[in-house]
Amino acid sequence: MLAEQIRKQFGTPVYIFDEIGLLNRLEEFQSVSTSIYDNCIIAVSYKTNPTRALLAKLHHRGAYAEVVSGDELEIAKSLDVPFEEIIFNGPAKTDRALRLAILSGCFVNCDHEDEIDRIEKIAIQENVIAKIGIRLFFPSGENWERFGFAVSSNDAPCLAMRVVQRVAESTHLQLSGLHTHIGTNIRTVETFSSLGNSMADFAAKVVRNFDVELEWIDLGGGYASLPPLASENRDALYPMPSIQEYCESILSPMLPWLRGCRTPPKVFFEPGRTLFNPFGAMLMSVMGRRPVDSNGVESLILDAGITSISFTQKYNLPVRVFSDLGESRDFRLLGPTCMEHDILRPAVKLPALVPGDLLMIYCIGCYGMSLASPFTHFRHGMIGWGEGSDVHWLRKPDNVTHSSQLDVVN
């Protein structure tokens, strides 16, 4: 379907998602990971793209749900995801959500000691033994250290091992899993190889010192996508990250330990960016122009801006136009709000465009819809591109009727 046909049928601005590309990427992740270790499971990150129509298709093909809040847990419930196929992460779980997750058999990974204390209290009240995992971080200077418990790089006592002991001594808690998520958009596979070594080493010590059987190892996400950072001063996209390289780098160091377990644990991957990002775009229209500024750059005013693609200033996202009106030159792309910083691209080479022309921004499949804000404009809809020329709504645009249902006007 041509861009002009999409505008006539669905309007602009509108998110567009390549459903076939997304599903093929999931199936590749499943196939590659299980060819290395057959008990690997892919869990789709809800925070990355919470579009229910897409999530339903991914679950239909065997993906688990990875949620980080009670609200996301409710989304998974609404999609009929079995509780035993839900991984519950995040640093701010409510008691209500924790109680449901514990009693229903979700995989619960704990972020801090206060959360463990609350889970123990719930387990005592319900007279159950709560199976939990703990989130780890391995200090290295580049790994995230905001979440979870530190694992020291030497034999000195570390916070993570102390927490393991605290759980082992509880009559209402059972350590059943280990979890980590080392960062985001990581291109160096050596980083994941180091993670695999560190996780296997720590897991072996836990099993040896506390005589426990771990049911799951959750390796998180952090795998890269295509667009370069704006700070890299590069417009060319990176190649599609190799799932084979990622999986081999992180699993190979772990295989001796995994295969030596009495009962081989499940291994979870939680791809978000590398799964969703390449397959999302936004079609938008030129609303107006501004003359050359003091820096010698003309501007185009578009009908979508940073409230629709909040991370656009962090990455050099690719832009496509649908008309050829001469030699390209630098343009600044401005959003539709009355905010000085609503700038999609400070400078990008395009042919001269006029009001009514269309352009497309690519590689926004992650965190576009989930971070979209209704500031001055309702949130835009999303269409899916399926087999052949099948284009259909995945989520319709918000409107005043939808919004007003939540307002209380006296």
CATH superfamily of the largest domain: Alanine racemase
In CATH, the architecture of the largest domain is Alpha-Beta Barrel
State mean pLDDT (0 to 100 scale): 92
Radius of gyration: 23 Å
Helix tally equals 12
Distance between the termini: 47 Å
CATH C-level name of the largest domain = Alpha Beta
Class of secondary structure makeup:
alpha/beta
Shape: globular
Q: What is the count of β-strands? A: 18
Q: How many strands, what sense, and barrel or not for the largest sheet?
A: 9 strands, mixed
- DSSP strand (E) fraction? 15-25%
Looking at the structure, the CATH topology of the largest domain is TIM Barrel
Descriptive overview:
The chain has 410 residues and is an alpha/beta fold. It folds into 2 domains: 3-14 and 278-401, Lyase, Ornithine Decarboxylase, Chain A, domain 1 (Beta Barrel), CATH 2.40.37; 19-275, Alanine racemase (TIM Barrel, Alpha-Beta Barrel). It is 30% helix and 23% strand. The protein has 12 helices and 18 strands. The protein has helices at residues 3-10, 19-36, 52-60, 70-78, 95-104, 113-126, 159-168, 189-210, 243-251, 255-260, 273-276, 400-404, and strands spanning 14-18, 40-45, 64-67, 86-88, 107-110, 130-137, 149-150, 173-180, 216-218, 266-269, 280-290, 298-302, 319-321, 329-334, 343-350, 358-362, 382-385, 391-395. The strands form 2 sheets. Strands 1, 11, 12, 13, 14, 15, 16, 17 and 18 form a 9-stranded mixed beta sheet that branches. Strands 2-3-4-5-6-8-9-10 form an 8-stranded parallel beta barrel, surrounded by 6 helices. Strand 14 and strand 15 form a beta hairpin. Helix 8 (189-210) runs parallel beside helix 9 (243-251). The longest helix is centred in the middle third of the chain and has 22 residues, at 189-210. The two termini are 47 Å apart.
